[in-house]
Amino acid sequence: MGDPLDKLTIRGFKSIRQLEDFEFKGLNVLIGANGAGKSNLISFFRMLQAIINGNLNDYVRDSGGISDLLFNGRKATRLLDFSTRFGPRGYRFKIKPGPSEDCALIDEARYYDRGRSRWWNLGDSPDGQSLLVKEASGKSRGAQVCALDSNEQKIEKHYRKHVQLQDLFRTLLHELMTAKIRVDGLEF
Length: 188
Ligand SMILES: Nc1ncnc2c1ncn2[C@@H]1O[C@H](COP(=O)(O)OP(=O)(O)OP(=O)(O)O)[C@@H](O)[C@H]1O
Ligand SMILES: [Mg+2]
Fold this sequence. Notes:
Layout: E1 7-13, E2 16-23, H1 38-52, H2 56-62, H3 66-69, E3 80-86, E4 89-97, E5 103-112, E6 119-125, H4 131-177
Antiparallel strand pairs: 1-2, 1-3, 3-4, 4-5, 5-6
Bound molecules: adenosine-5'-triphosphate and magnesium ion.
Residues 14-15, 32, 34-40, 68, 70-72 line the site of adenosine-5'-triphosphate.
């Protein structure tokens, strides 16, 4: 399993104007008055799930449009800003509404505190499809291809050994039958 969520920063999502480095523990309980923003925080995780599934713009549409998702509407909030850290890793992006209701994911970046550059910028995605998700699925396909290649190489190696042993066996049998070599007590 991956590292649990440690910190979360959200700026400009629904009633969450600015949540800075909000710390998560092993168990998290949301308590607050009606309208305090508990459901909004949960909606944010639903939106993250939609991004992972490649459905950001469907999520935006089903939620009533980007103006309902940006703090006080798209005129008041031009960008939704998100950043998170889990263990040595992190991830961030901004959501920018387009001229219609569709959204772009911009400044998407991943973080690794043992890496040389720490924040690694992945770029912008005008169609809202996460570049991190694309990268991860590309990697897993790459890993599968590597594993298949290595299995094929192993099969090929064993097949070559098998052919060599068959040749050796045929040669030995021939030499035994033509009495080129003798084994005590072995008669044909
Ligand atoms: N785009 C937005 N900009 C600003 N505020 C918003 C936006 N969308 C929703 N809100 C506000 O969020 C509040 C509702 O928050 P939420 O539903 O998360 O509360 P809650 O803590 O779950 O409340 P309850 O205990 O009643 O379920 C409302 O006051 C609503 O006006
Ligand atoms: Mg609620």
